[in-house]
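Memo to structure team: turn this sequence into structure tokens by end of day. - J.P.
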Amino acid sequence: MLAEYFVRTLGLPVRHVKVLHNAGRQEIKDNGIRWLKDIITAQKGDVHIILYYAGHGVSNEKFGPYLVPSGIDVSKIRAFRSKTGNLPENIVLKGKDAEKIMNQCISLDTLTGWFNRVDALSYTFIIDASFNGIQRSGQQFFDIKKETKRARPSRVRSDIVIFMAAEADKTAYSFIDQHHGFFTYYILKELKYTRGEATFRELFENVTKNQAYESSLQGKLHEPTMIIGGKLGENWGNRTFINN
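Reply from structure team:
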């Protein structure tokens, strides 16, 4: 688990780390985001914030990425109903069905927006999820009917760096032998090897190289991607996890 690496390898105090398992949207907001914002306020912004998410994702009609929290209610969504009682395959939602699902999810814009007007020294997000309707196992989850053929680059607030396991239209697979997603596994490996001293640029380049190689050997080629706050420029690459 990433949290254990930050405590054992990088030396973060246990009290500075909070883990939410199978959390719903409201729990993420109330017990996760609010906890972070309270700490930022108490420390008058003199903190570095790291947020890690591993789980399901989906993208809207314009490929905008959304996190799918636990406890999504699909009971009122027609596409999920089946006369046999089994979950239908290859579900693609549109119209009101899509709206009912997306309203329960957390868009990347919303996630970053929760920290608007809350100034910390730095924000780093690590997102290990697929956003193309395919689970990390390679099985179909559900998707949203797209209006465009290509994903547009996401834009976020100026001081956030986001590491993502794959592009919004690609699958982020599991590294089954290691019981992690490929992305999380190689992030952990780099943190352990460098003890957090590698720059973000070095870390991303090494994770990309190793993830692409190992996933391709298993017939599941995918590469990580990044979203960098517009005003950071090349300065993002000099950050590290022990001295952001």
